[in-house]
Specification:
This protein is of the alpha/beta class. It is built from six helices and 15 strands. Bound molecules: 1-O-pyrophosphono-5-O-phosphono-alpha-D-ribofuranose (PRP).
């Protein structure tokens, strides 16, 4: 599997993911778990965030520390990507959030775009594309195509579950984009769902 793929080995991620998959987990708990997983996955995906030195005064004197030297943009893919925004905003209150609306055509499994309000020029240095499910990869490839046309230079995918087919498609289309997920599952089934997966993330999140 591609070097781009970073599967979390953190015990809390494994624990929460197992709860998330469980068919008996209700919508309210499902949303909480997605929020918590987003926070943990964002911690992993920002390990190489660029820093600049920063001097502050402590009650005891001067300390030289660091502060973030990149403006981060969260790019949730509607709808299910919305569930990953809150947890990350809590960790990084100054992020920008740019929504991209795509749905997957049930017959062709190809992404269809319905929302994009990106401004003319990029306003962020690091884009985190948020979507819990990397299935065929069509939605994330299309989103990253949009971001690169916009002028985004540094892009990462942050999600929950990936299928090998999605990782292969995303790696082939965007070999420079790291893929951070909680788990790599076995495969896609014949209707494009990840197996064993967690079902339809958008439906479980929004109760539809
Ligand atoms: C699901 C999921 C991803 C996409 C993944 O969204 O949330 O966005 O499918 O599939 P892909 O990798 O094959 O493109 P869906 O189209 O069901 O829309 P929703 O989030 O509005 O439910």
């Amino acid at each position: 599997m591609s070097d781009q793929l970073q599967v979390s080995s953190h015990p809390l991620v494994k624990h929460k993911l197992t709860r998330l998959r469980d068919v008996d987990t209700d919508h309210r708990r499902f949303r909480e778990l997605v929020r918590e997983l987003a926070l943990l996955m964002c911690y992993e995906a920002t390990q190489d965030l660029h820093l600049r030195p920063k001097v502050v005064n402590t009650p005891m004197g001067e300390a030289t520390g660091s502060e973030a030297d990149e403006v981060i943009g969260l790019v949730p893919i509607l709808r299910a990507g919305l569930g990953l925004v809150d947890g990350i905003q809590e960790l990084l209150p100054s992020v920008q959030v740019w929504h991209i609306g795509l749905y997957r055509d049930e017959a062709t499994l190809r992404p269809v775009q319905y929302y994009n309000k990106l401004p003319d020029a990029p306003t962020v240095q690091l884009c985190l594309v948020l979507d819990p499910m990397l299935a065929t990869g069509g939605s994330s490839v299309a989103t990253i195509d949009i971001l690169k046309r916009w002028g985004a230079k540094r892009v990462k995918y942050v999600g929950v579950l990936a299928a090998p087919e999605g990782v292969a498609a995303l790696s082939a289309a965007h070999p420079d984009v790291p893929i951070h997920v909680a788990e790599l599952d076995e495969r896609l089934n014949d209707i494009g769902f990840i197996v064993p997966g967690l079902g339809d993330a958008g439906d479980r999140m929004f109760g539809t």
